[in-house]
Amino acid sequence: MLQLVLALSVSVVTVAVYGPVALRWRRRTLVRRETLRLVASVRLEPYHAALLRNEATASAAAELVLAGYLRIDGEGAAFLTEEGRDPGRTPAHPLPAALLEAVRRHDPEPVSIGWIDRRDEEYAARRGAYAGERDALLPALPRMPDGEGNRLLACCGCVGIVLVMFFWSIAGVLLLAERPHGVREWACAAVAALGLAALASAEKAGRVVRERTECGDPLGDLARAQPHPAFAALDEQRRLLVLRSIADYYRWQGADRVVVEAEHDDDEDDEWLDDKVWWEDAYEYRAADEDEPGARPSSG
Fold first, then answer.
1. What does DSSP assign to residue 297?
2. Which of 117, 201, 223, 282 could form a disulfide with 52 if both were Cys (CB 3.0 to 4.6 A apart)?
3. Cβ(90)–Cβ(79) below 8 Å
4. Residue 291 DSSP SS3
5. CB crowding 73-110: b at 16 or more within 10 Å, else e
6. What is the pLDDT of residues 65-92, one digit of tens each?
7. pTM
């Protein structure tokens, strides 16, 4: 009789534990299938793909170098060519056009592409506007259910784990406490033992569900599938020059360096004037102290 009760109770608890696991498997599978279907229908524009992998500025610089608007020297400084200085010539795409205008604002001072990428507010605004327009065209991808962020669900899960562990311990002790007799009791004991083994593997089953239904970053994989055409068209030497310029964000600051140096010179002039005023005030104070009436005459 004890083995029958154990078999029934263990079976009920096992179904209660694995039921949500099976439902989660099905739900995550449907979300993964829908996500992959939506991403498969996306056709990324080359600069949008470069934005998603954080290479838009380097790709725009590569296009400007290919078109003859820019020249980058061995130290990563970018200079305008004669074509780049011509205001009537501008790339058709908004990103390389914005980058060319940013370089023109610094001309004739040398500037690195990395400095513009990180410090030029107007270029950053135009790049952000383009990114917003392209992102608005992307389909809304469903969110993969993971249970994170739901505090109530997490608390219920912890309580459930404690109760299942307590039940597993009690059922295991009762199963070993009495020796089965007859075929029926042995069969019930076997069912109870299998149920307890399944309960012991419930955590592993949940982990397997997460691993097999995880879809990763399909949109990022699509963006990383191939480089930008302009960047791929560069030869090895010019590609290295573009990468060196995009990696430099402090050495070649273009017209901004002139402003910073002028401010620094003004600060030095202010400090010199402050020191001069301090010495003049100190001299006047000493002279006034010596001219006070009743001052003690010097001895000798």
1. P
2. 223
3. no
4. coil
5. eeebbbbbeeebeeeeebbebbbbbbbbebbeebeeeb
6. 999 999 998 888 889 988 888 888 889 9
7. 0.68
